[in-house]
Amino acid sequence: MTTVGLIGIGEMGGAFAERLLAAQLTVVGWNRTRAKVEGLITRGMRWAASPADVARQSDVVLTMLTNGAALAAVSDGDDGILAGIAGKIFVELSTISAHEIGALAVRVAKSGGTLVDAAVLGSPLTVRQGKLVVMVAGDVAAIAAARPVLEVIGPRVVAMGEVGKAKIMKIALNLNLPAQILALSEGLLLAVKSGIDRGTALEVMLAGAMASPMLQYRAPFIEEMPAKAWFDVGMMQKDCDLALSLGRELGVPLFATAVSREMLSAATGQGLGERDFAIMYYALANAAGLREAPRIADAPQDTSA
Length: 305
What we know:
Distance between the termini: 24 Å
């Protein structure tokens, strides 16, 4: 039976762990703050002393980190993943640049392991619903070996080509998210400032063709923000920056992404940076002179069920 290592157990990583444990796979985990994963340990996840220890105990190692710096911190050094990756498969799921994942692939190969470049399309809710899409790129044999594990966290696994392409596809997807929230926020704010009840306006907007699956589950956050962000403003800013950098590299103008990035900057400047990026509505409302405060859920939403 495959032993799966999991490093970076936040909202998404925690949802992955739940599905892996429910499938009766052996899961070995490490997180920077152990206290945040005590519930998973109680449910059967084994705790490892370091990222290197996770790799040594596992057949397949999954990482889901905030950014490239966080990934390097758990990958390199005596206690890093690469110290124990020889003969193992390293599936890297974070949203980072193609250049960063390419450089990591070289380091993994030098350490005797094989890297699978991966990314996901979805949210903690999507994971719980069994609807996550996993994009993979790189060594064909390693992808085939890791596929049974990946299909537990997301039943649809799509091969994208060589290392770097999964990250690029993820960046191409994510730039749509803040643009959709911003467009919805602009329309919603026009309705609200005209005297229409916000809840009623939002209900109508989510009933029609304009309501993508992402808006269906995230736009209600405007009415009540989760106490713990699923994907906060800072993370969304980072993804916009990755997209804008790639756009400059490829000569692709990204007008909507640039404007969305500035709206996210406005949210940060208003002290809203720790909230889910749906908070863009309130940043826009503040800019329009409509001083509204978001209602916050009483307790963090349980994204592990």
